[in-house]
Amino acid sequence: MRERVRRSRPVGWLLLALLGAALLGSRASRLYTPDWESLDSRPLPAWFDEAKFGVFVHWGVYSVPAWGSEWFWWHWQGEGRLRYQLFMRDNYPPGFTYADFGPKFTAHFFHPDEWAQLFLAAGAKYVVFTAKHHEGFTNWPSPVSWNWNSKDMGPHRDLVGELGEALRKRNIRYGLYHSLLEWFHPLYLLDKKNGFRTQHFVSSKTMPELLDLVNSYQPDLIWSDGEWECPDTYWNSTYFLSWLYNDSPVKDEVVVNDRWGRNCSCHHGGYYNCQDKFVPESLPDHKWEMCTSLDKWSWGYRRDLKVTDVLGESEIISELVQTVSLGGNYLLNVGPTKDGLIVPIFQERLLAVGRWLQVSGEAIYASKPWRVQIEKNETSVWYTSKGSVVYAIFLQWPENDSLYLKSPITTSTTKVTMLGIKGYLKWSRDLEEGMYIALPPLPLSELPVEFAWTVKLTGVK
Ligand SMILES: *[C@@H]1O[C@H](CO)[C@@H](O)[C@H](O)[C@H]1NC(C)=O
Ligand SMILES: *[C@@H]1O[C@H](CO)[C@@H](O)[C@H](O)[C@H]1NC(C)=O
Ligand SMILES: *[C@@H]1O[C@H](CO)[C@@H](O)[C@H](O)[C@H]1NC(C)=O
Ligand SMILES: *[C@@H]1O[C@H](CO)[C@@H](O)[C@H](O)[C@H]1NC(C)=O
After folding, report:
1. pLDDT of residue 377
2. Based on CB atoms within 10 Å of each CB, which residue in 25, 180, 200, 416 is the most buried?
């Protein structure tokens, strides 16, 4: 190789030099340094904003007691809550430890293709799966989680890998949830005792596992959590992220959230989650995601789930619409059973979202916030837009089939249609501002969706 280059003519050398300079230049322009100013300047890969709707999955050893929440271990032995102690006394033999739940996490009925098919039918463009929660159990064969991972114990399978394959066959983006802290890991407790001035846990557990996850599964998204007890300097977060953005196999497409150290969330990282279930009051100037759970009280599965604990279809769709109108993504959580089943009530809710998106997806996927987000009147109307097209999503059907929209400024070319219905709708200008739209008086059986209908406006300002 070297010989051939040496013998090439001067023009060849010039070309090589130019090429080299271009490569160096593009490399330099893509080089992020391990500080927030640099990392925060990275543009968010476009797929994330376009995706709008994702499914979150919380699955781990906590799915075995399946009681209280995925924080079971902490409530029981970290805080020693009486309710949890009584639950253990009444249901398990004396001396039963949390680790004894591990072998009972069987995943017997886990068919990743069935999950992926359900998430596809739900209209999800991405899925975020708990690779490891605060209990430290890894859902993949982590070489640094000896006998506390899904290959050595319980399922005896690589859950992270299997789900990823099934999702990617269906072009669904794959995100991995990863908890920085582990409640009871001896090295974490040692670092804590040292006031987090040592990093034994980070160098032997957190960093190796994050690198392993990225290199082995090439996730499109890393959903970081469990950051709150220590500053990002303890977690080595800016070093990890600069590697992720500069040199990792997913450097161009990967998206991360904002939980990378105490006081980081809502300030630094990729997109912002801020608090769980966070909803901003007005349009934020930074991409964000609202994460919430189908079970109002837990992210992990609970055996004593009641129907009234489950978000209703109209609640879910309202939240999705509000979130997207305010520029966010909506990440809806489901907790499978220890066997790997997604119970029918969760399936039903996910499929309801999918049916709604079949009709209304045009106003959601790849949309942008409009200049107005909400109009409050008899009925709530949320707006989204795509280029010059404006979508008004109204949550209640107006009493006399006449929808009043205050904000759109009509023109001579204004046209109105309704998603899921053929033909144009009649409309008229209000004398002062806004417009009235005559909705088709359809019988219930012919309504395109049962809730949250969308009118599409063209030629409005
Ligand atoms: C932090 O990251 C840097 C760069 O990857 C690495 O050299 C260093 O060892 C890491 N520190 C710890 C404690 O893992
Ligand atoms: C970080 O957060 C803690 C607790 O929320 C707060 O008391 C503290 O003032 C914050 N520090 C900075 C530098 O913002
Ligand atoms: C509410 O809608 C009615 C028409 O349905 C309209 O006359 C009225 O001005 C609206 N109120 C506000 C506050 O926009
Ligand atoms: C329908 O409602 C609008 C707004 O409240 C009102 O202006 C209009 O007069 C109503 N039409 C009928 C037929 O009641």
Report:
1. 67
2. 180
Q: How far is the CA of 237 from the centre of ligand 1 (A)?
A: 9
What domain count does the chain have? 2
Let me know if residue 353 belongs to a domain.
Answer: yes
d(CA 225, ligand 2 centre) in Å: 17
Question: Domain boundary residue among 363, 394, 428?
Answer: 363
In a domain, 1, yes or no: no
User: Which pLDDT score is estimated for 10?
Assistant: 46
| Ligand showing the shortest atom-to-Cα distance for residue 228 | 2
- The whole-model pTM stands at 0.91
Question: Which residue's CA lies nearest to atom 9 of ligand 2?
Answer: 263
What integer pLDDT is reported at residue 368 of this predicted model?
98
Closest CA to 297 of 307, 312, 310, 313: 310
Question: Which residue is closest in CA terms to ligand 3's atom 3?
Answer: 404
Same-domain check for residues 387 and 337 = no
Chain segment 260-313, per-residue pLDDT in tens: 999 999 999 999 999 888 889 899 999 999 999 999 999 999 999 999 999 999
**Is the CB of 263 inside a 6 Å radius of any atom of ligand 2?**
yes
> Which pLDDT belongs to residue 30?
60
- Tell me the average pLDDT of the chain: 93
Residue ranges, the chain, pLDDT below 50: 1-15, 18, 21-22, 24-28
Q: List residues near ligand 3 (CB under 6 A).
A: 377, 404, 406
137-151 tens-digit pLDDT: 999 999 999 999 999
For residue 369, is it within any domain?
no
Claim to verify: residue 24 and residue 93 sit in the same structural domain: yes
CATH of the domain at 433: 2.60.40.1180
Which residue segment(s) compose the domain that 456 sits in? 374-460
Q: What percent of the chain has pLDDT over 70?
A: 93
